[in-house]
Design a protein that fits this description.
By secondary structure, the chain is mainly alpha-helical. The chain is built from 20 helices and six strands. Belongs to the lyase 1 family. Argininosuccinate lyase subfamily.
């Protein structure tokens, strides 16, 4: 029993308690098994805090130097896998502080926590960690976008049906399809960059909830840690997890876009379409059907969207009912965020590989083009002859119906047929039946004409580079 009481008293909060902690409760409460990945962020924040303590006269120069030396040794132990976790290490913060005191002595190590609570410490660590990870994710997203845009620029000759309601609608360039998806991911890139100032808000110095009484220089802390601003209200600073919710919301939207791209490519890769073929590196076979080549990479990307949305929704429900300032419910922030960041990072890298190695079948795309895809071009033809569009739409529709009735393409209708449909038709109507001409006529900004494809490519590259 005495040993159990010692176990409780060794905890940072142990002095208040006379009874022992239920071992199951200790396990239920501890987070070191997953928050240890923030060890470098915790060391970085603690070294900066020791400098604020030095300026405030809480520690002297020798003590601050020793704290820095000890913390760097702790960080190295984590990095090389030699850090020895003890039974009473609740989280990364207590583990690091315990080990620091072993290295530099309790008289020095014990001063580090002056004016600091785990409440502001963990909030700071989370933000440091997420800022670093966000920079990595931005890099992955830019790499993925560069592959999409480069393929679009190179494969501009391929024309295929564009679809609405999964029905063939009008001819477009393959490049236009790729750039449609790139447009969504470019908006994701913009939103990711816009989040950074809201992540980069310093909580450190807020202590448990009411600030610290030592006059610690929070501007010094901000500069040392590279934050863009300082949390102005200590109660809010220690409990704010909006930046995590927002990141997971961002990730959910990104993965919705990823899922839609995956769905298009899954459909295009079927034998019924045959527009694209995945590289072997991103496909698997069947355990029973040897002819199968399954687009598992794309299906997993599609599936990850549900996983990340679930992490976001779950954490939002954890937060919605808690009262002001810090509550232990907020410990539920780490696992969904860590999993969300890991899933997004992996998804972007896999998607980059899929797109980079994808093979397209331009001949299959061309074979899928049928003349009824030019029905709108017939209507446009008549508009240029001075006929109101509503009337041209009906005339074009009747031409499609007539071709279907005769089981021919609309391009097979005779001049007599066209004249019967409208006296405005002349011999030049047959010039309409050219898919390249069709897409080239759509040369307004946003269209699939060659010069507009190049414009989209140029704009995309500027956005990736952060120039607009």
């Amino acid at each position: 029993m005495a040993a159990e009481q010692d176990f409780t008293k060794r905890k940072l909060w142990g002095g208040r308690f006379t009874g022992s902690t239920d071992p199951l409760m200790h396990e239920f409460n501890q987070s070191l098994k997953y928050d240890q990945r923030m060890y470098a962020a915790d060391v970085k924040g603690s070294i900066a805090f020791s400098k604020a303590l030095l300026k405030a006269g809480i520690v002297n120069e020798h003590e601050q130097a020793e704290i820095t030396r000890g913390l760097k040794e702790v960080e190295q132990e984590w990095a090389n896998g030699t850090f020895a976790i003890q039974a009473d290490d609740e989280d990364i913060h207590t583990a690091n502080e315990r080990r620091l005191s072993e290295i530099v002595g309790k008289d020095i190590g014990g001063k580090l926590h002056t004016g600091r609570s785990r409440n502001d410490q963990v909030a700071t660590d989370m933000r440091i960690w997420l800022l670093d990870e966000t920079a990595k994710v931005e890099g992955y997203l830019k790499d993925f976008l560069n592959v999409l845009v480069s393929r679009a620029e190179k494969e501009v000759d391929a024309i295929l049906p564009g679809y609405t309601h999964l029905q063939r609608a009008q001819p477009v360039r393959w490049s236009h399809v790729l750039l449609s998806h790139a447009s969504a991911f470019l908006n994701d890139l913009t939103r990711l960059r816009e989040m950074v100032p809201r992540i980069s808000v310093l909580p450190l110095g807020s202590a448990a909830l009411a600030g610290n009484p030592y006059g610690l220089d929070r501007e010094l802390l901000r500069q040392e840690l590279g934050f863009q601003s300082i949390g102005e209200n200590s109660m809010h600073a220690v409990s704010d997890r909006d930046f995590i919710i927002e990141w997971l919301q961002w990730a959910s939207l990104l993965m919705i876009h990823m899922s839609r791209l995956a769905e298009d490519l899954i459909i295009y890769s079927t034998a019924e379409f045959g527009f694209v073929q995945l590289a072997d590196a991103y496909s698997t076979g069947s355990s029973i059907m040897p002819q199968k080549k399954n687009p598992d990479s794309l299906e997993l990307l599609r599936g990850k969207s549900g996983r990340i949305f679930g992490q976001m929704a779950g954490f939002m429900m954890s937060v919605k009912g808690i009262p002001s300032t810090y509550n232990k419910d907020l410990q539920e922030d780490k696992e969904p965020l860590f999993d969300g960041v890991d899933s997004v990072s992996a998804s972007l890298r896999i998607a980059e590989g899929v797109i980079a190695t994808l093979n397209i079948n331009a001949d299959k795309m061309a074979e899928a083009l049928s003349m009824d895809l030019l029905a709108t071009d017939i209507a446009d033809y008549l508009v240029r002859k001075g006929v109101p569009f509503r009337e041209t739409h009906h005339i074009s529709g009747r031409s499609v119906a007539l071709a279907e009735q005769r089981k021919v393409q609309i391009s097979d209708l005779t001049m007599e047929d066209w004249k019967a449909l409208s006296p405005h038709f002349t011999e030049d109507v047959f010039e309409v039946f050219n898919f390249e001409n069709s897409v080239e006529k759509r040369n307004a900004i946003g269209g699939p004409a060659r010069k507009m494809i190049q414009r989209q490519v140029d704009v995309a590259r500027e956005r990736i580079a952060g120039k607009n």
